[in-house]
Every structure is written in structure tokens, then in C-alpha cells.
Amino acid sequence: MADSPARQPLQKPQLLWAAVLLFLSALPHWWHLHPPVPLAFTGLVAARLLLWPRAQRRPPGALRLVLVVMALALVAYQVGLTESRRFGVALLVVMAGLKLLELSSRNELYLTAFLGLFLLATQFLFSNTLPLTLWVLTVATGWIAFLVAINSPPGSGVKAALRTAASMMAGGVPVMVLLFVLFPRLDGPLWTLHFDNTTAVTGVSDRIAMGTIANLSQSDEVAFRVRFQGQPPPPSQRYWRGMVLWLTDGRNWWRQPAPARPEKAPPTKQDWRYEVTMEPSGQTWLFPLDRVMSAKETLRLDVDGTLKADAPIRERVTFRFTSVQLPLDEPLSLRARWLGLQLPRRVSPRVRALARKWRREAGDDTQVVQKALAYFHHQPFVYTLQPPVLRGDPVDEFLFNTRKGFCEHYATSFVLLMRLAGIPARVVVGYQGGEINPVGGHLVVRQSDAHAWAEVWLQGRGWTRVDPTAAVAPERVERGIAPQ
């Protein structure tokens, strides 16, 4: 009795087909994972095809065991156990390479195909864009054709398998369209799924998407603790600087990597000397006061004032800093001027007209800033943690229609207006405030103290902090965040 197709010996074309499909399934993860992980996967695929090209040969068992241990160590070192999403995907990627390396029988092709399809599905943990969806569907069709081919009689041909797979995929299109109509589309990747995707929790991120949050819930988790030498600064000066956001497309704001600061200014009489005890965050960002002039040598201090540790903070750790309060008479580099004046491709005529009006009426940049703050103060703006979701042009909608928002609305719209008026400006995210612990005497800064403000560059003063939220709700700066 003849063997079934699945029990026939593994052929070299089948091995090559499986290797190509596995590589295509993992390819988008080059943008999501640390480079050594996909490089290791590519190395395993190449080793299988170059060193053990015969379909029924595979590396010795001892070597495979060593490679498994090395792969686990690589993933743990590069990703870390705390980043569960990336750790799981990275482990799956390297294990797919190891599975190809040990492939020797035709029965194992089924497991390889299912592993490849599962690897494709993990792409949606990071993104759900249309190009990625088309890529996943295309590669999935290849895997279905692969399964059809290994279950077809010898000599059936690749074209016949592809035709069968294409017809099967086409049969699923009506169901796919029905699900697309009946189920809600997500604005972000699947791992951010909540029952209400316009709801967020207070905390600091290195990216702002203006107007996408309709309900900002408070988190009382401790971000860090601060102990000063002497009295702490007053609440209005407790701005804990995090990341600087330079670039915008009109709705989103994100960071631009900056070079390290070449030298540090000498301390002044307004020094604050203190130590910050950070809670584990899995990130490298630190949150000192403006502006750090003395810190541990292993820390990186960028020219825009961003301070980073040399490794993600995975356990409670204490840093000592010396800071001075802004403004400092700092020069403006050509790079900072270009970044500070960058504008989105589209800005509404009403927003442009408002900035031009302030520029015409003002005698200098300082007066433009004052007119903007007066606009926020005298117009019926409201500080709230339940703002409406902004449709269309978010800045135009916020400035002239809804006029309801929290700190990110005021900071980002203010910075855009300043840039339209010709004043270099940038968004800073971090924390503001902190409460005194009556027992220990130290400051406790919580995730609910997360805040965003602006900095503008003024002649003779340098980068100067401006908090437009304080023009609308000064109690936010004096007493911390509170729902309205």
C-alpha cells in the first residue's frame, strides 16, 4: 500500500518553500524587535539552507541544544522578561528558526506551517495598517498553498496549489467583509484594546496623539520619590522634565533623537540638590527638575534636556542631581531652530490667521506669548479629563469649537501657534507637582501628576518654560490633577 502524501520523504523544494515562507512571516518584525533577534533568526534560516541543504539531514542534537540555550539567552538579554509582548514574539521568532533547523521529516511540515501562520498573526500585536494586512493575507495564501501542495499527489505542481489556495482565500472574503462591517475598527494595535478605546490612564509617553482620548482616568501609582537638600521648590516650580517632542503631523507629536550635551553650565545660586528614587518602569527615561547641571557620568544628558539611564530601569534605583531653574541664556542651534519651527503639511486657515494676528499686534516674541496665554485665559476654555474626541483638524476643532481638553491639548496647540508666529517652540512631557510625605519628608510623584507643557526660545533668555494649562486652570499647577 502506498504511503499517504504526508508520510512521503521530505523533499528539498519543500524545505526551501518552508524557509522562504517563514522568513516572509517574520520579516515585518524587523521593525518591532531589537535587531539581534531577527538577525539570529535569519542566521538560523541561512545555516539550514547552506550548511545542511539536504532535506533529511539536520544538525547534531548537541549543537541544537546549545543553539536553544543561546537563543533563550539572547531573547532574555535583548528584550527582558518584563516586556512580555516583545519577549513572547521574539521567542517565537527565534524558535521558528530553530524549528526549521531541525526539520527532517515531512510530518513536521504541518507544525512548521502552523507556526508560520501564528507568527503572521503576531504582526497585529504591533500594527493593523492596510499594507500590513495585505502582506499578511498574501503570505497566508502562500502557507495555504504550501499545505495543499504537501497533501497533493506527486507532480501536481505549484501553480495548481496556488490556484486552490487563492480560491479558498476568495471564499473567505464575504466573511471577512461581514466581520469588517459588524466589528469596530481599532485606532491602535491589538495589545491596546480596551472596552472603550478613547479611554486612557494618566502616565507619561514619548508620543502624543492629540484629541484621541475622551476619558482620562487617574492612576495613583507612584512614579518616583524625591528628597531635597533643604526645602523643596514651591509647587509651581515642580516640573519634572521627561522627553521633548519636536515633530508633528498636526495630530501626533513624537521625539527626535538629540545629540548628547557637549558641556554643562556651571551651577548657580538657584541650585536644587536632590535625589530621585525611581520605581521600575522598563524605560530609560529619568525625570529631574529643569535643568540638570550635575548627574552621574553614566547617564546621558541630551542637548534638549532629556536625561536617560544607560539601561532600562527594572528595579528601584536612586539618582542624585543638581538642577537650575529655567530660563538659561542658551544659544539656538540651526538644528534646534529647524526642529522648533517644523510645521505639519496642513494647517487650517483660522489657526494661521490667529497666529498672524498676534504677530502683527505684538512688538516682540514675549508679547506674542502673552497674547496666546491671554487668549487661553479669556476665551471660554475648560480644563477637563473628559474632553470630546476631535475630528478633522484637531487643533482647529479645539481652538475654535470644543475648547475643552487637558494638558496635551493646550501644550500642543500652543506650540503650533508659536511656530506659526515664527517662534521656535517644543512640547515637553513629564510630571508636575508632587505631595510631601509627612512621615519621611520627601516628595511623592504619582502617575496622576503626568503633565505636558511648552518651551519657547526667546532672545536673551533661551528656552523658556510656558505652561498654557496654567492660564486656563492654575489650580492644576498649584494642587495637581483633579477631575472636572
Overall pLDDT score: 81
Largest sheet: 6 strands, antiparallel
- Biggest sheet strand order reads 2-6-5-14-17-18
How many helices? The count is 14
Radius of gyration based on Cα positions: 28 Å
In whole angstroms, the N-to-C terminal distance is 78 Å
Find the structural class using helix and strand composition: alpha+beta
Short structural summary:
The chain has 484 residues and is an alpha+beta fold.
Characterization of this structure:
Helices cover 40% and strands 17% of the residues. The protein is elongated. Strands 2-6-5-14-17-18 form a 6-stranded antiparallel sheet. It has a 6-stranded antiparallel sheet with strand order 8-11-7-4-16-15, with no helix packed on it. A two-stranded parallel sheet has the order 1-3. Helix 1 (12-26) packs parallel to helix 5 (108-121) and helix 10 runs antiparallel to helix 12. The N and C termini lie far apart (78 Å). It has helices spanning 12-26, 36-51, 61-78, 84-102, 108-121, 130-150, 158-182, 334-340, 349-361, 365-378, 394-402, 407-420, 468-472, 474-479, and strands at 199-201, 207-209, 215-217, 222-228, 239-248, 252-255, 272-278, 292-294, 300-301, 307-308, 317-323, 382-383, 404-405, 425-432, 435-436, 443-446, 450-458, 462-466. By secondary structure, it is an alpha+beta fold. The chain is built from 14 helices and 18 strands.
